[in-house]
Specification:
This protein is 42% helix and 14% strand. By secondary structure, it is α/β, with parallel strands linked by helices. The protein has 4 domains: 178 residues, NAD(P)-binding Rossmann-like Domain (Rossmann fold, 3-Layer(aba) Sandwich); 86 residues, N-(1-d-carboxylethyl)-l-norvaline Dehydrogenase, domain 2 (Orthogonal Bundle); 103 residues, Transcription Regulator spoIIAA (2-Layer Sandwich), CATH 3.30.750.190; 86 residues, N-(1-d-carboxylethyl)-l-norvaline Dehydrogenase, domain 2, CATH 1.10.1040.50.
Length: 505
Amino acid sequence: MTALDLSSPVAVVGTGTMGQGIAQVALVAGHPVRLYDAVPGRAAEAADAIGARLGRLVEKGRLTGAERDAARARLTPAGELTDLAGCGLVVEAVVERLDVKQELFRALEDVVGDDCLLATNTSSLSVTAIAGGLAGPGRFVGLHFFNPAPLLPLVEVVSGFATDVSSATRAYETARAWGKTPVACADTPGFIVNRIARPFYAEALAVYEDRGADPATIDAVLRESGGFRMGAFELTDLIGQDVNESVTHSVWQAFFQDVRFTPSLAQRRLVESGRLGRKSGQGWYDYREGAERPEPHTAEPAEPPAHVVAEGDLGPAAEVLTLIREAGIEVREEAEDNGTRLVLPGGGQLVLADGQTSVEYRDVVHFDLALDYRAATRVALAAARSTSARTVAEATGLFQALGKKVSVIGDVPGMIVARTVARIVDLAVEAVAKGVATEEDVDTAMRLGVNYPLGPLEWSRRLGGDWARSVLDNLHECAPSGRYAHSLALHRHAYAADKQEGTSS
């Protein structure tokens, strides 16, 4: 099945930000485009707005004047739903209400031809449910673009329970012909991105609620150590706190209130207060004129230790030993069957975040996971109140000697990056095992849809097959609510990885 022919008109119903963006994508690809909105006059206003954006593309050298004029000539505001007759594809981008979408598509069935592909841009509702009342649900598919649609490459092509393979394939090829990167997925809550991304927000909020660190520090650690493009608090401010919470709530409800997707009370209070992020002027941060951006907590300079003793293999943090040697600090290595730590001159221990807290141990500082310890510019440390001041100072000085800023946070299990990545890996592995999407499509979706530095499955391979399971087991022991109980799929994934490593060795 090939992509929709360029001579076939594309209709977009709903002329908000997403509707205009999708219309622009189809228009630039070469299709005639018809815009419809239930509110009189809005389709014409949207056509003018799209025309203005095409003009800006000419100014930036991305379109020629002739291409802009030709595209503008192909764009038609539709006054009535019946004006969409003859379209080969209709994409809906109206309000996220199931009843509204169902009523719209039932009306469209009476207008368009039998060969017209019907698509919804829903981000959180069931594609199967929207198509449930249609006479021909086989031609119905999800085409989930990401905002802003003209710029972001990812499109999730979602097959509902009754979607024909030919319809999904045609939608997939059409998205690809439009210059997008499509990924195929089944109709499950949140699809790929909004399902697997939940822990990125949830764990940052949990660290905040447990008084582990303030938003500015958590965001800085996620960016400067975890390699994420934005921190969770600044990203939700950009998305809109109400929008982000609504998606979280929708996924939680769709999974029958699975505790792993439980919404945050702190975010609920923020929404109730009207602090919705950039669009309202205040969210986790203050965006009003003259407001100062809070700085992340950064430790004062401390003296580095003269030496460290490496006991066992540091696993994902093995590169830290190389950096320590390059900094001129002596590393003494001792073989230990169960050792995975650095011993500081004062006798304190430095341990990679593993889902445990420091309070159970005599004198331990945990350090957080980094995407790349050489490239990281900040490292988080966590210590219990009982941890000696000397151990904290030696650990701080050690990482400062490696050229890193240090943020000392509260003694929260799994710290910030480690717990976030472990949960993302778990949900990704589970999604693949349940047939939501392939490993390749999951990794592609998370890299392109939310700009993750690595796909979750690729990250898991780097960290080792059992890493995420071990971290989550420890987190579950510290907080046995079920939130950190790993999936059966992750258990099998870890076991298979261990078996493969044993065979290869």
